[in-house]
């Protein structure tokens, strides 16, 4: 198979105008390559990172806090890419009562030469897309009283492109629905289940050392959930549920602005259909069973208007195109016409897949190959920018 791909790699190299590394950022409750045994966040039973590398693309997978805020996740992503120790910032840490520099979060750096002359591409799924935007935001701004290289300097043109997949740019109506109906630990567990039936029985890295929460290797994940539910993190705005809410998304969107030097692409997914003689949406044949209850709740939410009922089981499709809810209005958006343009969110045609199928979860070998082809095609585009 690899020998067959060699001509394709050669042709792709000839057409490339850059070979800048591509970093994949997982979403809410995601995990790194050294977790979950042989189950990959990007690929499920397959391994999209290695498949893309075999095609000549320089792809890396990041592993950030699965339930942390986008600020914390972005700081962790920076340290993993550039190298060094995590520093969440003095002001941020004091505001939310977290440990500014956890002792065990230091990295050699996947791409230490990262700077304006050696930019990168970011691809984020679900919350990972907002994390990518937060990292972009932190790089574009400076905080003079801070000491970390990320926060004290303006590092413009370090990012060549940002691609978001099934990302709740304007929030998801599922976050408050779940938190209002179920106890904390139970609600979180219900989001985990679609990935693996054995997820809660295995050691899982929550990366919450900044909150003083450290997983004991002999402690079951479900017991750790209980500790999280009792801690101050639950009611903090420095947490994923705030960032994923409509209100939290609006606050960040009011701070965030697209950068005229960056290319933006967004992929939207759906797996519902409109109910006859109603504005409600219900799951269709593309929705996996475990996501159907959540999809039904979103499909009847009517939080903003009926267009928000269409969903992929986790996120409202209307929220995936790009940030629109900021106090200054929508960021520039348009449908992608095949001609990449900087400084504008270019929306790809909606994909008929559920929230987890788009990253290769619970798919047949044939279907997984079809999803991988989406990534291959997009990586080819990124290398022409």
Architecture overview:
- The chain has 385 residues and is of the alpha/beta class.
- Helices cover 33% and strands 11% of the residues.
- The protein has a single domain (2-382), classed as Rossmann fold.
- The protein has 13 helices and eleven strands.
- The strands form three sheets. A seven-stranded parallel β-sheet has the order 2-1-5-6-7-11-10. Strands 3-4 form a two-stranded antiparallel sheet.
- The relative contact order is 0.15.
Order of helices and strands: HEHEHEHEEHHEHHHHHEEEHEEH
Low-pLDDT ranges:
1-14, 181-201
Which of globular, elongated, flat, extended, rod-shaped describes the shape?
globular
Main pleated sheet = 7 strands, parallel
Record field, number of beta strands: 11
Mean pLDDT reading: 88
Structural class by helix and strand composition: alpha/beta
How helix-rich are the residues, as a percent range?
A: 25-40%
Looking at the overall shape, the CATH architecture is 3-Layer(aba) Sandwich
Largest sheet, order of strands side by side? 2-1-5-6-7-11-10
| Cα-to-Cα separation, first versus last residue | 28 Å
Just give the CATH class. Answer: Alpha Beta
Tell me the strand percentage band. Answer: 5-15%
The CATH topology assignment is: Rossmann fold
Radius of gyration: 20 Å
Number of helices: 13
* Number of domain modules: 1
* CATH homologous superfamily classification: Alpha/Beta hydrolase fold, catalytic domain
């Amino acid at each position: 198979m690899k020998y067959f791909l060699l001509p394709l790699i050669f042709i792709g190299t000839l057409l490339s105008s850059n070979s800048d590394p591509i970093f994949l950022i997982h979403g809410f409750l995601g995990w790194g390559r050294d977790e979950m045994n042989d189950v990959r966040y990007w690929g499920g039973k397959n391994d999209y990172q290695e498949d893309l590398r075999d095609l000549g693309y320089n792809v890396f997978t990041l592993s950030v806090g699965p339930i942390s805020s986008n600020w914390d996740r972005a700081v962790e992503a920076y340290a993993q890419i550039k190298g060094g120790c995590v520093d969440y910032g003095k002001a941020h840490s004091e505001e939310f009562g977290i440990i500014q520099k956890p002792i065990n979060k230091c990295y050699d750096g996947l791409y230490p030469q990262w700077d304006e002359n050696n930019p990168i591409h970011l691809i984020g799924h679900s919350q990972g897309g907002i994390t990518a935007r937060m990292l972009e935001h932190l790089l574009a701004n400076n905080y003079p009283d801070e000491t970390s290289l990320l926060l004290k300097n303006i590092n413009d043109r370090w990012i060549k492109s940002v691609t978001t997949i099934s990302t709740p740019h304007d929030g998801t109506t599922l976050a408050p629905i779940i938190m209002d109906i179920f106890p904390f630990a139970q609600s979180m567990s219900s989001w985990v289940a679609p990935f693996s039936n054995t997820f809660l029985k295995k050691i899982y890295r929550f990366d919450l050392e900044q909150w003083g929460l450290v997983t004991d290797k002999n402690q079951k994940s479900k017991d750790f959930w209980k500790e999280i539910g009792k801690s101050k993190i639950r009611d903090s705005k420095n947490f994923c549920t705030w960032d994923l809410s409509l209100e939290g998304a609006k606050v960040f969107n009011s701070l965030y602005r697209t950068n005229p030097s960056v290319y933006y692409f967004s992929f939207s997914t759906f797996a519902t259909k409109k109910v006859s003689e109603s504005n409600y949406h219900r799951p269709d044949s593309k929705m996996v069973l475990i996501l159907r209850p959540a999809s039904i709740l979103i499909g009847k939410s009517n939080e903003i208007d009926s267009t928000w009922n269409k969903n992929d089981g986790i996120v409202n499709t209307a929220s995936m195109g790009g940030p629109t809810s900021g106090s200054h209005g929508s960021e520039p958006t348009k449908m992608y016409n095949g001609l990449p343009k900087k400084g504008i969110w270019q929306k790809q045609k909606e994909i008929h897949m559920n929230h987890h199928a788009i990253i290769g979860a619970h798919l047949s070998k044939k279907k997984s190959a079809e999803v991988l082809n989406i990534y291959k095609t997009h990586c080819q585009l990124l290398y022409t920018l």
